[in-house]
Design goal:
InterPro entries: NUDIX_hydrolase-like_dom_sf, NUDIX_hydrolase_dom. Keywords: Hydrolase. Its EC number is 3.6.1.13. The structure is a single chain. The protein is globular, with a radius of gyration of 19 Å. 20% of the residues lie in helices and 37% in strands. Strands 7-4-9-8 form a 4-stranded mixed sheet. Strands 1-2-3 form a 3-stranded antiparallel sheet, with no helix packed on it. It has a 3-stranded antiparallel sheet with strand order 6-5-10. By secondary structure, the protein is α+β, with helices and mostly antiparallel strands. It has 4 helices and 10 strands; from the N terminus they run E-E-E-E-E-E-E-H-E-E-E-H-H-H. The protein folds into 2 domains: 1-43, no CATH class; 47-182, Nucleoside Triphosphate Pyrophosphohydrolase.
């Protein structure tokens, strides 16, 4: 058999965990030597993030506590695609308003990324938003009630990445992609570009169970 031609067939699957924002399943997968191996997969709703750049070339950044690393991280405005039937652009528009109090007149797609393919199906679409206006920011809860908002020059943001002060992978990808586009070295995609890797399993299971419109609210 030639390398790169094996079909990794799933012969069985078991749901190990179902929680508000994720699920965990164990698949039995046929390996190239015809044996079966188990692979645990963290199931995710998918997410969107926004590089929002004002007319002075500054981008909106938020600083949020992340319990998994017990630290406050500088990130892009971002959030889960956890509303039933919501496409990526409306989700990004909602998150930009909720986390930064901003709306944008121009939108495009910078980059799609699979964040941790070794164990998780999470995929994130990062948008570029320009022609910004301020809108009312709704009341925040949980970690977002402690969130800071600031504006950074793109050059300062790139420097912060290289100095290890911005470590969030979505922010790193978005900032460098936006820098290429805004410098004229790259062309973004339209907002109707297919989001091939957007995960579907967790959302489909919640819809089948009648959970919605907020698919995190399992009852």
């Amino acid at each position: 058999m030639s390398a790169g031609t094996h079909e990794f067939t799933v012969t069985g699957t078991e749901l190990l965990l179902e929680s508000p924002i994720l699920g965990v399943r164990r698949d039995s997968v046929v390996m190239p030597e015809k044996t079966n191996a188990y692979r645990e997969v963290v199931e995710h709703f998918g997410a969107v993030a926004v590089v929002a750049v004002n007319d002075r070339g500054q981008l909106a950044m938020v600083r949020q506590y992340r319990h998994s690393v017990k630290s406050r991280l500088w990130e892009l405005p971002a959030g889960l695609l956890d509303m039933a039937g919501e496409s990526e652009l409306p989700g990004a528009q909602r998150e930009l308003a909720e986390e930064a109090g901003l709306a944008a007149g121009q939108w495009s797609v910078l980059v799609d990324m699979v964040t941790s393919p070794g164990f998780c199906d999470e995929a994130v679409r990062v948008f570029l938003a320009t022609d910004l206006t301020e809108v009312e920011r709704p009341p925040a809860e949980f970690e977002e009630a402690d969130m800071e908002l600031t504006w950074l020059d793109l050059a300062d943001a790139r420097r912060a990445i290289l100095e290890g002060r911005i470590v969030n992978s979505i922010a790193i990808a978005g900032i460098f992609a936006a820098s290429e586009v805004l410098a004229g070295r790259g062309v973004p995609r339209g907002t109707d570009a297919p989001f091939e890797y957007r995960p579907t399993g967790l959302a489909a299971r919640r819809r089948e169970a009648g959970v919605g419109p907020d698919m995190k609210k399992m009852g």
